[in-house]
Specification:
By secondary structure, the protein is α+β, with helices and mostly antiparallel strands. The chain has six helices and seven strands; from the N terminus they run E-H-E-H-E-E-E-H-E-E-H-H-H. The protein has helices at 11-16, 31-34, 94-97, 117-128, 147-163, 171-176, and strands at residues 8-10, 20-26, 43-53, 56-70, 77-91, 106-109, 114-116. The strands form two sheets. The chain has a five-stranded mixed β-sheet. The protein has a two-stranded antiparallel ribbon with strand order 1-7. The structure holds zinc ion. Zinc ion (ZN) is lined by residues 71, 73-74, 76, 135, 140-141.
Length: 177
């Protein structure tokens, strides 16, 4: 994950200013997310509220988008609204992430006080994708599932599991062991 420098924001400054930001990110610009989608149209909307907790910059926010996934029952495209909640505390290093952090907040790396909000949004959307996308009602499916589609479903689920790994989700556990 190497965001373009222009994408990096100064979370120290935003937290000091208690800034509120609204932003939109074209789905097509979120390349890790589009790998799991059937279509890269549309945009993700995000709302951020920065504050400080225990001296560290922190972020409370929401993310939502409507994405196009392939229904794994009938293999036709389906639109699905997804949304997520951001409750992050920024840390300067992995060592700091392993230390004492405010309860309920997920550590996010911000080396030198800079972080990529697009990466934060993309991580959250990846976590919000269903492991296996299916039309809510089987009657919406174009055709009933056959044996070859069951195989396609398992393969797609395995691929999605690989892609839905938040970079820092298990950071604390990894560093403790
Ligand atoms: Zn379907």
């Amino acid at each position: 994950m190497s965001p373009a420098p222009a994408d990096l924001v100064d979370v120290e400054l935003l937290a000091t200013e208690r800034a509120h930001l609204d932003a939109a990110y074209p789905i097509a610009s979120l390349s890790r997310l589009t790998e799991s989608l059937a279509d890269d149209g549309g945009a993700a909307r995000a709302s951020f509220r920065f504050y400080r907790v225990s001296g560290r910059p922190a972020l409370d926010g929401t993310v939502d988008a409507e994405v196009t996934l392939l229904c794994q029952r009938c293999l036709t495209a389906m639109r699905l609204p997804i949304e997520g909640r951001l409750e992050l505390v920024f840390v300067a290093s992995e060592a700091e992430a392993a230390g004492e952090l405010p309860e309920g907040l997920e550590p996010a790396l911000a080396p030198h006080g800079k972080a990529s909000l697009a990466a934060v949004v993309e991580d959250e959307l990846l976590l919000s994708l269903p492991l296996v996308a299916k039309h809510a009602d089987p009657a919406q499916c174009a055709r009933a599932a056959g044996p070859e589609r069951v195989a396609a479903e398992s393969a797609a689920a395995a691929r999605r599991e690989e892609s839905v790994q938040r970079p820092f989700a298990d950071l604390k556990d990894r560093l403790k062991s």
